[in-house]
Amino acid sequence: MGLLLQLCKWEKRLQLHKCDIIVTRSIKKQAVNPTKLAEVGRLLEAKEGKYDTGQLFLHRIFGYRGVILFPWTARVYDRDLHNTRKQSAAITTTSTECNTEATTTTLRAKTGDSSNGTTATAHHDEAQSSSWQAGTGVIDTQSSATTMGTASPATNRSTTSAVDSKEVKGKTQTFYQVLIDNRDCPYIRAQTEAVTFLGNQDSNRSLYAIPGLDYVAHDDIMPYCSTDKHPLQHELFDKFLTYAQDAEPPFVGQDTLKAWQEKNHPWLDMSDVHKETTENVRVTVIPFYMGCRETPASSVYWWRYCIRLENLGELSVQLRERHWRIFSLSGTLETVRGRGVVGQEPILSPRLPAFQYSSHVSLQAPSGHMWGTFRLEREDGYSFDCKIPPFSLESKPDDASTPSTAGTPMGEESD
Q: What is the model's pTM?
């Protein structure tokens, strides 16, 4: 059974002044059995200012249902804005998108209808297999070729110059921490257990995951309202939010949400977002500091990074290979090559234009840089290297405490 989200536009003859969000259930029974429709809410007009805690929304790219917990203020480094040729292409693409959006009458997104309210907490095999190796840079650890060496002073200078974030001026934008509806998790092309951190259990640092969380840009929020007092299925929804009929939105944050945010701030905090477009494929990277693993011989610093690939063109492309370069403040420069990402070679088509995943990296220094390329193959046979914008890895004062809520261990340490 699949679900189809339809955005029914305003029709003059019916004098409808609000858009209805309708869930279409396709039932494979007799042909005479009509498709059943169920209204889940009404689409609201997008806001220029910040959305409030408790606002229900549809994700503009991935189509899932969610609710806003709290906002983050991030510096967005968009390298396309500093490239005149890319900027012109981006304007053309945006214009095309707007024209397409004006003629589109439906938003389709596959969603589930399970009501058990549970989500898987296990990471992808790639994340699990990164198993705390005491070394420099565990990246996308599936079968990949890795080389590492000590960078010379000349290499250090060229490397630093190549990834200097100061050459691109950051612009402040609003992102949101959100909960994802459990029913939609199996059907979206984004990891729904990607928020990970280092916890402290029995004096051992373990990898934990918080399921069903995502970071969403303001422009990707499509707000809607619902008369349902329990419109979202997630184990934290009732713990964090309560229904208030006279409020707008009618779901307000409880004290437990504020306490949870303060407790888990170290591994939830986002500050920088990096973007770059190559051949109509935009790559967005958000790095997060996870914590430090202390050993008698050394300290190993861990980060996770969330990457979204978006196809802004009309031809489908498939991700074939990745090529990473990781520079550590300790003076090492590592190269990692491999097939696909997280065990997949996703196809980015006009119908499913985006794919999002997370992975981890470790350094034996408190800071470093990463950059690289994705090898993409277009449906017409043309292959090209899509740039991954350079981003810095910066550590923070470590907090080894275990989160107060929703932290699920994903595996013990192993050397």
A: 0.73
